Amino acid sequence: MAVHLPELDSPFLVPFDGGFRIGDASTTPLEDIGRKKCEKRLKASVAAMRELQRILYASDHHSVLLVFQAMDAAGKDSTIRSVMTGVNPAGCQVVSFKKPSASELDHDFLWRTAQALPERGRIGIFNRSHYEEVLVVRVHPEYLGGQNIPGVTGSNVGEDLWEERMESIRDHEKHLARNGTLILKFFLNVSREEQKNRFLRRIDRPEKNWKFNAGDLDERKCWPAYMEAYESALNETSRPWAPWFSIPADDKPYMRMSVAEIVVNALVGLDLEYPVLGEDERSQLGAMRALLEDEKGE
Q: Please, which residues bridge with residue 244 across strands?
């Protein structure tokens, strides 16, 4: 049975009926609560997540997969760092997916992310993901030339290819959910104007120069194509077992708080519990306690 989240009334939830319109999705906070209150609520969520992660690890029944996708400078790295700061590193893994290797290109498009899925009891975070194959590659279909797909080149890509990839993603995620993976996907929705401001800060501030890549400006020119690709991907793959959330990203404190609260609510909805020992095992614990106490007199 697929994992269905009990708390899906978030204002950021991408509906399951294909009605998401990226032009209507806010990039700014839905409420004016201020930086300090955002940071206070984030801190509370981080503390709650710390305890929930311990129970998740101990129960060893579910895994959690958090997927982050966004345009450049939306704040993926800082959000992951802020939201997961209290989680035990032993129970959490972050994987960033960049340009695929030759080995990865010799497999199907889901292969490289499948290798990095979290095991039961752990939280896995994908900084970019299998969705690059219906976002970046859709905007730049020439990248398909290196994938050696029978009958497909960058010059003869039909709409059916993207529909088939969406279907594969839906089936893949449903399979994971059926087997105990809680999937939460976050589109950090930054405005084009705010992205420009952040790029300018990267240029103007020496300590941020390393973040700036001239190629980012080339991708910025493709903004309309990216927005069309994101709208299609979110509509086609937001499902009860793997929902998308479109998070306003122009205000970073608000964005981080919103992501953290969604994760905490979803974890609470799993009704996690520490393992309960049987009667025989509890009796053995009593015997072990007696042995330890006897050591005091040695």
A: 185
